[in-house]
Amino acid sequence: MNTLFSVLVLAQAVTGSAPVGQPPAPPPAPIVQAAPVAAPVAQPAGAQIVASAPSAAPMAAAPVALPPMQAAQDPQGSMWTTLIFFGVMILVFWLLIIRPQSKQKKKHETFLSSLKSGDKVVTGAGFIGRIVSVEGDVVTIELARDVRVRVVKAQVVSTFKEEGEAKNV
Fold first, then answer.
1. Predicted TM-score of the model (pTM)
2. CA distance 76 to 82
3. What is the SS3 string spanning the chain?
4. Which pLDDT belongs to residue 132?
5. Is 141 exposed, middle or buried (0-12, 13-18, 19+ CB in 10 A)?
6. Rounded CA gap, 55 and 82, in Å?
7. CA-to-CA distance for 34 and 64, rounded, in angstroms?
8. Can you list the residues of the chain whose pLDDT is less than 70?
9. Of 16, 21, 101, 154, which one's alpha carbon is 20 to 30 angstroms from that of 77?
């Protein structure tokens, strides 16, 4: 689940949208240009500054800090980055999950096709016994003297080797 969340966050970072669970960023404030301010006039030494009455003219707006200019993103470049990212993710998924699982399945099918009477096997339920007969997809296993169980062939997990027996590898 954490991996899926990380993939979503990275995909959104690549496309430039807001992260999951957060509202989109508000649009930028309009750019306001400040009116030019006149330079102060030098007063002779000893002159008094008298405040004048406020005039009807509007005061100059304070300069607004402009947001830094962002480079325009190339939509084609962003698309290729996203496609490459998803291609790499599919490749990793195939290498780590699908390929090993298919190899294991093929190995198990080879094992099942090589089963014969007299093999000592372990079933998926944990029963240990000797194969008496193999008929299509059904295997008859003898668990004890005169105790025989019919099992679906796919439920035979592996051969059983006791500690005292020689191991053939």
1. 0.47
2. 10
3. CHHHHHHHHHHHHHHCCCCCCCCCCCCCCCCCCCCCCCCCCCCCCCCCCCCCCCCCCCCCCCCCCCCCCCCCCCHHHHHHHHHHHHHHHHHHHHHHHHHHHHHHHHHHHHHHHCCCCCCEEEECCCCEEEEEEEECCEEEEEEECCEEEEEEHHHEEEECCCCCCCCCC
4. 95
5. buried
6. 59
7. 7
8. 1-2, 4-5, 8-75, 165-169
9. 21
CA–CA separation, 167 and 163 (whole Å): 9
Dihedral over alpha carbons 123, 129, 133, 134 (to 10 degrees): 20
Return the domain boundaries, the chain: 77-114, 116-159
The amino acid occupying position 76 is Q
N- to C-terminal Cα distance for the chain? 40
- CB-based burial, 57-85: b 16+ in 10 Å, e otherwise: eeeeeeeeeeeeeeeeeeeeeeeeeeeee
pLDDT recorded at residue 169: 43
Rounded to whole angstroms, the Cα distance separating 93 from 97 reads 6
CATH 2.30.30 fits 116-159, yes or no: yes
